[in-house]
């Protein structure tokens, strides 16, 4: 059987790294003085392992809510004699000045800091520690690193190491002492979103060997200084930089450029217009270009070949056939061409192997891939277009689409717009149409990022999208690996303050599905989270509104499921005024059959708990249960469940029946009448996981009517659904208990006759296990 897309297993290196990070004290560390985490003395780790540990640690911090960050984690890598770091990628506000200072003795080759807004100018001093070895440096979005924190001087001492660490860096005067002087090996530099009051030219001038420079969203006083690297510069990114003839003229002098990005966000109001002439001269002069991005520009004059003059045939990447006039000057097709948010992406012949745009699925996916890390505003738009493709058309590159959306959601966990569009896209990319093509691992990745979004945002749209996406999964099976977490998030959504009906309805449905068909220890754990109380609060609110809707019915159904063979949860139901709400619902909604079925199913679970039955043995409750014996609601289900409740109560014997009215024998007579009125071939809206509560009513003479109800229940189930229930009855020893029913003198003749039929049904099934009934795979409801 071929592996499904996205099912490649993690490498042993990855698995071992994650295990060590989750178990630092059991593997490579010990608890030192003042609970400080320390590396064991006999540990010596090479750079390949250290880099993996640090970068995976950052990923776990941002994407796994169950992962506990370590206060002194970076101190583990303070000594280069035992740990070697060379390539480190850190992001978001989690990273602090003291984290960088902890690794200042390392000979870093690559240091990528992205959106690290907690860093202050103290970290610039730390950067200077790496000047002799650093080859690649990214400071994208580190808006506060060029400012002193709270006006403090740049210099710091060991004693001040932890000072003000928990306070975000406040912008005071910009740091003027820092210089890139001495960074002689630095080749790749990203200063994207450099603050406006930090002058790029003076900051960069000391650098001599830069080959790749990213100045996205940087305000330039002039661009002439770029020519100092005219012989070396191979990559230049000027995204959202205010272009002018002077800037373009400078770019034209950089004859060795292989990658040039002059793109902009289309909503920006700028004076500069990209013309056919400018684009032509760029292509003519920059002969080594393999990658060009002009996304977001509006072409003032006609840049494209008229449709009737276009080369005939299939879309071609040959420059001579290009539908874009200036690109006919290319000597060879470009490896990459950014045309996102331009009309040029819609032409037929584009001389590039990879194109960003909005014409088709491939262009949209290319845009998400190219812009996710540093341009979330563009990635957001592209994901929105992917959403439309998945919703209206068909996504042909499913694996790639899912992986890109997952990556975007992980990368921008704190960007609301990405979370909204990404979660909406995931809903359509995981629905039934695409499900067969998705691996277990890929679907687990989806679940993880969906739960991350639910945790981070209480906003209605994100919550609704995430809940709807979870509905595309097999519940509880596919969510079991995150069982506790998903239940906690759903219960939080269902807090009384939440008023959005659509989210409430979806969340209750999910809660109900999650507690159906799971082990008792799962149900007990969820009960301790406040599940029972939350459902009863929802029911109370609906009663106050005099509304019986899906939320009301799902809430009772969820309580039915979570109390199945779980005495603690049954006790919680009684303690939280559950019986009062049951009576109020019966009175307020006398004709709601589904509601009555769910409530009686729940009370059947309560009645199975011997220690709780005395709380049901009151004149009021017994009268209600007796009257419901005659109910025709939902076929026989309400009457059947009411009789089940009474059967367990009768099983405790006449000595516990202390009330005068209704009389015990009168209630038993009504039970007999009800059972005899049922059609034994009735198809059922119920699902038993175990017969144990029924089987305990068989070998006894205290309440023959209880014995008869149990025998009828078994006969109905094994005759209508033999392949499902005959094996269950045999496995749980039901046949031997039925034999005892035949031996008891107190057993009624009709009970014995039905017991024989049950035994015959099981014997026939053993002889012919392929026996089936038409339609037997019915859509069972839940017993619990």
UniProtKB/TrEMBL annotation:
<feature type="compositionally biased region" description="Polar residues">
    <location>
        <begin position="771"/>
        <end position="784"/>
    </location>
</feature>
<dbReference type="InterPro" id="IPR055142">
    <property type="entry name" value="ZER1-like_C"/>
</dbReference>
<dbReference type="GO" id="GO:0031462">
    <property type="term" value="C:Cul2-RING ubiquitin ligase complex"/>
</dbReference>
<feature type="region of interest" description="Disordered">
    <location>
        <begin position="763"/>
        <end position="784"/>
    </location>
</feature>
<dbReference type="InterPro" id="IPR000225">
    <property type="entry name" value="Armadillo"/>
</dbReference>
<dbReference type="Pfam" id="PF25013">
    <property type="entry name" value="LRR_Zer-1"/>
</dbReference>
<dbReference type="InterPro" id="IPR051341">
    <property type="entry name" value="Zyg-11_UBL_adapter"/>
</dbReference>
<dbReference type="Pfam" id="PF22964">
    <property type="entry name" value="ZER1-like_2nd"/>
</dbReference>
<keyword id="KW-0677">Repeat</keyword>
<feature type="domain" description="Protein zer-1 homolog-like C-terminal">
    <location>
        <begin position="409"/>
        <end position="764"/>
    </location>
</feature>
<dbReference type="InterPro" id="IPR032675">
    <property type="entry name" value="LRR_dom_sf"/>
</dbReference>
<keyword id="KW-0433">Leucine-rich repeat</keyword>
<dbReference type="InterPro" id="IPR056845">
    <property type="entry name" value="LRR_Zer-1"/>
</dbReference>
<dbReference type="InterPro" id="IPR011989">
    <property type="entry name" value="ARM-like"/>
</dbReference>
<protein>
    <recommendedName>
        <fullName>Protein zer-1 homolog</fullName>
    </recommendedName>
</protein>
<keyword id="KW-0833">Ubl conjugation pathway</keyword>
<dbReference type="InterPro" id="IPR016024">
    <property type="entry name" value="ARM-type_fold"/>
</dbReference>
<feature type="domain" description="Zer-1-like leucine-rich repeats region">
    <location>
        <begin position="202"/>
        <end position="342"/>
    </location>
</feature>
<comment type="similarity">
    <text>Belongs to the zyg-11 family.</text>
</comment>
